[in-house]
Amino acid sequence: MGLQDNAIEDAGVQALASSPLFPKFVSLNLRHNNVGVAGVQALAASFFFPNLSSLDLSCNKIENAGVQALAASSFFPELASLNLCNSGIGDGGIQALAASSFFPSLSLLDVSSNYIGAVGVQALAASPIFSIIK
Predict the structure, then answer these.
(1) The pTM is what?
(2) Which 3 state secondary structure label does DSSP give 56?
(3) Residue 2 lies in a domain
């Protein structure tokens, strides 16, 4: 589902996350929607997206806390593509993602244009998740 470049914000994502109408979705594009931490936390806590293979949260303000919520969620077992480009993420978010064991299918990760330093890159390089990313 392409919802990119709108004004959905946290309230819209919370509405999506609480709706049981989306279990067949394989793609969700929320790029550039002014989504913040609360929206991503709601998405991460939702079990209505079990078949989601592509998630684009780029150009939002999800920051480290949003990535930490995603990294702690076991509700995205099929996720193969995760776009977090330009989302205000630093080393703490990347460390959480690198330590997560909940993304066994992840093969594409975009974390460009964020605030990732040597600590974040070292965490990715040491992570088993790094070996499956293309």
Answers:
(1) 0.94
(2) strand
(3) no
Question: What is the pLDDT confidence band of residue 127, given thresholds at 50, 70 and 90?
Answer: confident
Q: What is the pLDDT of residue 69?
A: 97
Angle (CA) 80-100-57 rounded to 5° is 50
Q: DSSP states of 70-133 as a string?
A: HHT--S-TT--EEE-TTS--BHHHHHHHHH--S-TT--EEE--SSB--HHHHHHHHHSGGGGT-
Beta partners for 32?
none
Q: Could you tell me the residue range of the domain that residue 66 belongs to? A: 9-131
CATH for 73? 3.80.10.10
What's the domain count of the chain? 1
The 10s digit of each residue's pLDDT in 44-85 is: 999 898 899 999 999 999 999 999 999 999 999 999 999 999
Q: How far is CA 129 from CA 6, 31, 38, 107, in A?
A: 31, 23, 25, 9
Whether 4 maps to a domain, the answer reads no
